[in-house]
UniProtKB/TrEMBL annotation:
Protein name per its UniProtKB record: Single-stranded-DNA-specific exonuclease RecJ
Source organism (scientific name): Desulfobacter latus
Biological classification of the source: Bacteria, Pseudomonadati, Thermodesulfobacteriota, Desulfobacteria, Desulfobacterales
Record keyword Nuclease present: yes
UniProt cross-references to InterPro entries, sorted A to Z: DDH_dom, DHH_sf, DHHA1_dom, RecJ_OB, SSDNA_exonuclease_RecJ
Keyword set, alphabetical order: Exonuclease, Hydrolase, Nuclease
GO molecular function: exonuclease activity; nucleic acid binding
Length: 458
C-alpha cells in the first residue's frame, strides 16, 4: 500500500498527521527515509502502539540525541558511524536495502535489480543538493547516470528522449519536474507514477502533467521574484520577505535565487492556512542559517513554532501575528553577526591555466567528472588578448572571439543585440572560463566557454 504525504498539510518528517495516516494502516513496521531523526515524540507514540520504527536519515542528530524509541537508527551523522556523512537520504535508504539483500543471501539477479536502482539514488542525490565532493555520492551519480542513459525504464525514455543525461539534466530538467507536482498541488503521486510505472502511456501522461505543473511553477516563481526584488532596495545584510502572494511550495527556490543574486541570506515567508506562516531560507555565503535560527530562538523564545535545516538552507514556522517581530529581530541578529565581516559576494576559481590551455588538460579534467554541487566544473581565470570578436547565434546576443590563440564563446554576453560589447578588439582582458570540446566535421577542438570578462587590474 502506498502512502504519500501532503507537502504543506503533513509537513516534513514523522509529523502528527503522518502518524495518524500510519495508525490508519496499522502496520508492524515503519521504515523512514530522509526523515525521522528529530521525530522522537511521534516514534515513541508509534512504538507504544506496538509499531516498530527504523529510522534512516542523513540529517544532523538533534541535541537531545537519536530517537530512543526507534528499534534502529541508521544515520551517518552519528558520531559512532564512520561512514561517509555526505550522502543523501535516498543513499542511506539504498544502502540499507543492499545490506538487507546481503543478509538474506539475495540472488545475483536480485542484486542486479537493486544496483539498477542507483538511477533513482542519483536523481535524489543531485536534487537534494548534497555535495559531490564525496566518493560515495560520485559513485552513485556516475553509475546512476549510466543506468539512466541505458534507458531501461519508461521514465528515462520519455524524459531524456535521444539525449545523454548529465548532472545538469538531473538538477535542472528532471529534478524540478519531479518536484513540481508536490510544490504546486502538495502531492507527489504523479511524480512517483512517472518514476516507477512500467506502462509507457501512464509515464507519458504523468510527465506531461509534471511538465505543465513545472511551467506553472516557473511563472509564479518569476512573479514572486520580481515582486521581492522590488522590495530589496537598499544594500541590506539579510532579506526576510513576507507577502500574501508568496507560495509555500516555491519560496525555497526564490530564496535561493535572491541569496545568490545579492550574496546575502534570504528567508521567504508564505501563508499556509490557519494563520500559520511557513518560511524557507537560504544562507548565502556568510552565515550558518540553522545556527542563526537557533540563536534567535534562544534570544526570543516563543516566536518560532518550529525550525530546522542545515548551514545553507533552513525552514521554519510561526504564527502570522509574529511575522513583523520576526522580520525585525532576525534582521537585527544577522546584522550583528555579520558586522565587520566583508560580505561582498565572491566567485572562487581554480586559478590560472597559463600555458596549459590545451586539449590534454581538457581530457584530464574530463576524467574527474561528474561535476556538480560542492564539486563544480573547474573555472579558470587568465589574462588574455581578445581578437576576431563577432556576434553569433540566432538571437544575436552571443559573442565568439579568439583569446590569445584559443577559440572562445561567450553565451548571453549581450543583453540585447545592440548592447555594448564587454570587450573591444585587441584589448587585454581577464576571462573566467571553463574548458570545452567543440566537435565539428570529425575534428576535435578546444573551446573556452567564457563566464565573465573583467578588466585587468592596473
Ligand atoms: Mn534530505
Amino acid at each position: 500500500m502506498r502512502l504519500t504525504g501532503h507537502r504543506v498539510k503533513d509537513g516534513y518528517g514523522l509529523t502528527e498527521s503522518v502518524s495518524e495516516k500510519i495508525f490508519g494502516l496499522n502496520p508492524n513496521l515503519v521504515i523512514t527515509a530522509d526523515a525521522g531523526i528529530s521525530d522522537e515524540q511521534m516514534i515513541e507514540k508509534l512504538s507504544d502502539a506496538g509499531i516498530d520504527v527504523i529510522v534512516t536519515d542523513h540529517h544532523l542528530i538533534p541535541v537531545e540525541g537519536i530517537p530512543k524509541a526507534a528499534v534502529a537508527v541508521i544515520d551517518p551523522q552519528q558520531e559512532i558511524c564512520s561512514y561517509d556523512s555526505k550522502i543523501a537520504g535516498c543513499g542511506v535508504a539504498w544502502l540499507l536495502m543492499t545490506a538487507v539483500a546481503q543478509k538474506l543471501c539475495a540472488t545475483q539477479e536480485q542484486k542486479q535489480v537493486l544496483h539498477q536502482m542507483l538511477d533513482y539514488v542519483a536523481l535524489g542525490t543531485v536534487a537534494d543538493l548534497v555535495s559531490l565532493d564525496s566518493v560515495t555520492n560520485r559513485y552513485f551519480v556516475k553509475k546512476g547516470l549510466e543506468f539512466m542513459n541505458q534507458k531501461r525504464r519508461p521514465c528515462w525514455q520519455i524524459a531524456l528522449n535521444e539525449k545523454i543525461a548529465g548532472v545538469g539534466d538531473l538538477g535542472f530538467q528532471i529534478g524540478p519536474r519531479v518536484n513540481a507536482s508536490s510544490r504546486m498541488t502538495g502531492r507527489a503521486d504523479t511524480a512517483i507514477d512517472f518514476l516507477i510505472s512500467e506502462d509507457p502511456d501512464q509515464v507519458t501522461c504523468s510527465y506531461e502533467f509534471l511538465d505543465q505543473q513545472n511551467r506553472k511553477r516557473q511563472s509564479i516563481e518569476n512573479k514572486i521574484l520580481t515582486e521581492a526584488q522590488k522590495s530589496v532596495t537598499r544594500k541590506e545584510s539579510v532579506i526576510v520577505y513576507y507577502s500574501a502572494e508568496n507560495h509555500a511550495g516555491i519560496q525555497g527556490i526564490v530564496a535561493g535565487k535572491l541569496a545568490e543574486e545579492y550574496g546575502i541570506p534570504c528567508i521567504m515567508l508564505a501563508d499556509v492556512g490557519n494563520d500559520i506562516v511557513a518560511g524557507s531560507g537560504r544562507a548565502g555565503q556568510f552565515l550558518h542559517l540553522k545556527d542563526a535560527l537557533a540563536t534567535f530562538n534562544e534570544k526570543h523564545p516563543g516566536i518560532l513554532m518550529s525550525y530546522g535545516g542545515h548551514k545553507a538552507a533552513a525552514g521554519l514556522k510561526l504564527h502570522k501575528n509574529h511575522v513583523e517581530i520576526f522580520q525585525h529581530k532576525f534582521c537585527e541578529l544577522v546584522r550583528q553577526q555579520l558586522k565587520g565581516q566583508d560580505i561582498t559576494p565572491y566567485k572562487s576559481t581554480d586559478g590560472a591555466l597559463n600555458g596549459f590551455i590545451n586539449l590534454e588538460t581538457y581530457f584530464q579534467i574530463e576524467k574527474l567528472k561528474p561535476f556538480g554541487m560542492g564539486f563544480p566544473t573547474p573555472l579558470f581565470y587568465d589574462e588574455m588578448i581578445a581578437t576576431r570578436i563577432r556576434v553569433i547565434g540566432r538571437t544575436r546576443n552571443h559573442l565568439s572571439m579568439m583569446l590569445d590563440n584559443h577559440k572562445a564563446v561567450f553565451f548571453n554576453a549581450l543583453e540585447t543585440p545592440d548592447s555594448p560589447w564587454p570587450v573591444n578588439e585587441g584589448e587585454s582582458i581577464c576571462a573566467l572560463y571553463t574548458l570545452n570540446l567543440n566537435e565539428w566535421m570529425g575534428q576535435k577542438n578546444l573551446q573556452l566557454i567564457i563566464r565573465e570578462i573583467t578588466k585587468p587590474e592596473q
